[in-house]
Amino acid sequence: MISMKDAIAAALGDFVEQHTGIRPHPKPSKRAHLASSDFLRGDADETAKLLSAHAGECTLFGAPLIRKIEAENGWLLFFFTADAIDAYAKTLPAPGEPDDSYFARRLWITVRHADAETPDDPVLLDGFYAVLFSAPNGERRFLSAPRHLDGTARVALEQRMKRMANVLLWERRNPL
After folding, report:
1. How far is residue 52 CA from its own chain's centroid?
2. For every one of its 176 residues, what pLDDT tens digit does the chain have, with 9 covering 90 and above?
3. CA-CA-CA-CA torsion for 112, 114, 119, 123, nearest 10 degrees?
C-alpha cells in the first residue's frame, strides 16, 4: 500500500505538471501544508490563479485533495482538504499496536473513538499535515490543535480525530 505522503506527492506532482509543465518538489512549510519554490523564476501569482481554477481536478482516492493554493514571495503554498484524509483512511486496515512513544500512544487512544468524518478544522489540518510531512514540531502542533477550542467543542473535535490518528499510526508503522 502506498503511503499517504507518497500518494499526495504523486497526485500533486501530476496535477501541477499537467497545468504548468513543471513537476514541483514541494517541502513542508510553516505557512502551508506544502510549499514549492519551483516557480520563483516564473510568476507564482499567475500560476496560483491557474492552478486554483483547476484545483477540483486534483484528487486523492476520488476525493478532492486541494483546499486552496496561494502565492507568497514567489512560493506556491498548498493547503489540503479533510476529504483526502477520509478517502485515504477508508483504504487502511485497523492499526496494530503502537510503538512506545508518547505520540503513538496518544494516537492509539484517539483511534478508539467512534468513526466519524475528519473535521474540517484548519488548525487541526495544519497539525495533521505537519506530522505527515515531517514539519518542525509537527507532533506538538497536532496534539495541541484542539486546544484552540474550549469545553465541549474541544471534546467534540477530539472525538472526531479517529481517521487522522489511524493514518498517522499507519504512516509511522509502515514507512515506505
Report:
1. 18
2. 789 999 999 999 999 999 999 899 999 988 899 999 887 667 888 999 999 999 999 999 999 999 999 999 889 999 999 999 999 999 998 777 777 889 989 999 888 888 889 999 999 999 999 999 988 889 999 999 999 998 999 988 988 999 999 999 998 876 55
3. -30
Q: Return the C-alpha cell found at 26.
A: 514541494
| Burial of residue 151, with CB atoms counted within 10 A of its CB: 0-12 exposed, 13-18 middle, 19 or more buried | exposed
Residue type at position 28:
P
pTM, 2 dp: 0.90
Q: Cell triple for residue 68?
A: 486552496
The angle subtended at Cα 171 by Cα 115 and Cα 94, nearest 5°, is 35
Could you tell me the domains of the chain?
A: 4-84 (3.30.1360.70), 95-173 (no CATH)
Q: What is the DSSP string of the chain?
A: ---HHHHHHHHHHHHHHHHHS-----B--SSSSEEE-TTSSS-HHHHHHHHHHTGGG-EETTEE-EEEEEEETTEEEEEE-HHHHHHHHTTSPPP----SSHHHHHHHHHHTSPP-PPP--HHHHHHHHHHHTT-TTHHHHHHHGGGGS-HHHHHHHHTT-HHHHHHHHHHHHS--
